[in-house]
Design goal:
single chain, mainly beta, two-stranded antiparallel sheet, 5 strands
Protein backbone atom coordinates (compact mmCIF):
# COMPACT_ATOMS: atom_id res chain seq x y z
CA UNK A 1 0.00 0.00 0.00
CA UNK A 2 1.26 3.47 -0.91
CA UNK A 3 0.46 6.43 1.29
CA UNK A 4 1.05 10.08 0.55
CA UNK A 5 0.53 13.19 2.59
CA UNK A 6 -0.40 16.42 0.87
CA UNK A 7 -0.09 19.78 2.49
CA UNK A 8 -1.74 22.83 1.03
CA UNK A 9 -1.34 26.34 2.28
CA UNK A 10 -3.10 29.44 1.10
CA UNK A 11 -0.95 32.44 0.32
CA UNK A 12 -2.01 35.93 1.27
CA UNK A 13 -3.45 37.80 -1.72
CA UNK A 14 -1.01 39.88 -3.74
CA UNK A 15 -1.37 43.56 -2.84
CA UNK A 16 0.34 46.46 -4.60
CA UNK A 17 0.48 49.97 -3.12
CA UNK A 18 1.75 52.86 -5.26
CA UNK A 19 3.07 56.12 -3.85
CA UNK A 20 4.13 59.05 -6.01
CA UNK A 21 6.28 61.94 -4.84
CA UNK A 22 4.64 65.32 -4.50
CA UNK A 23 5.86 68.89 -4.91
CA UNK A 24 3.32 71.34 -3.48
CA UNK A 25 0.50 68.95 -4.36
CA UNK A 26 1.79 68.08 -7.85
CA UNK A 27 3.59 64.90 -8.89
CA UNK A 28 6.11 66.68 -11.14
CA UNK A 29 8.16 69.60 -9.81
CA UNK A 30 8.08 71.76 -12.93
CA UNK A 31 6.22 71.58 -16.24
CA UNK A 32 8.16 69.59 -18.84
CA UNK A 33 10.65 68.21 -16.32
CA UNK A 34 11.28 64.56 -15.45
CA UNK A 35 11.19 64.82 -11.66
CA UNK A 36 8.39 62.40 -10.86
CA UNK A 37 8.76 59.02 -9.19
CA UNK A 38 6.56 56.09 -8.18
CA UNK A 39 7.40 53.70 -5.34
CA UNK A 40 5.67 50.31 -5.43
CA UNK A 41 5.24 48.24 -2.28
CA UNK A 42 4.20 44.63 -2.84
CA UNK A 43 2.97 42.27 -0.13
CA UNK A 44 1.43 38.82 -0.14
CA UNK A 45 1.71 36.21 -2.84
CA UNK A 46 5.01 34.38 -3.24
CA UNK A 47 8.27 36.23 -3.83
CA UNK A 48 10.13 36.88 -6.04
CA UNK A 49 7.95 39.32 -7.93
CA UNK A 50 8.22 40.36 -11.57
CA UNK A 51 7.44 43.98 -12.48
CA UNK A 52 6.29 45.24 -15.86
CA UNK A 53 5.56 48.96 -16.28
CA UNK A 54 3.72 50.51 -19.22
CA UNK A 55 6.89 52.43 -20.16
CA UNK A 56 8.87 49.18 -20.51
CA UNK A 57 10.68 49.31 -17.15
CA UNK A 58 11.01 46.09 -15.14
CA UNK A 59 12.08 47.59 -11.81
CA UNK A 60 10.01 47.80 -8.64
CA UNK A 61 10.12 51.60 -8.55
CA UNK A 62 10.28 54.29 -11.23
CA UNK A 63 12.17 57.58 -11.20
CA UNK A 64 12.90 60.54 -13.49
CA UNK A 65 9.33 60.51 -14.76
CA UNK A 66 7.57 63.18 -16.74
CA UNK A 67 3.86 63.84 -16.23
CA UNK A 68 1.67 61.04 -17.54
CA UNK A 69 -0.09 57.80 -16.78
CA UNK A 70 1.87 54.72 -15.77
CA UNK A 71 0.50 51.21 -15.35
CA UNK A 72 2.20 48.43 -13.36
CA UNK A 73 1.69 44.69 -13.71
CA UNK A 74 3.09 42.51 -10.92
CA UNK A 75 3.40 38.73 -11.09
CA UNK A 76 4.47 36.56 -8.19
CA UNK A 77 6.41 33.28 -8.33
CA UNK A 78 3.13 31.29 -8.47
CA UNK A 79 1.78 33.16 -11.51
Amino acid sequence: MLAAALTASAQAPLTVTLQSNTFNGFNVKCFGKQTGSINATVTGGTAPYQYSWSNGATTQDLGTLSAGYYKLRVLDADS
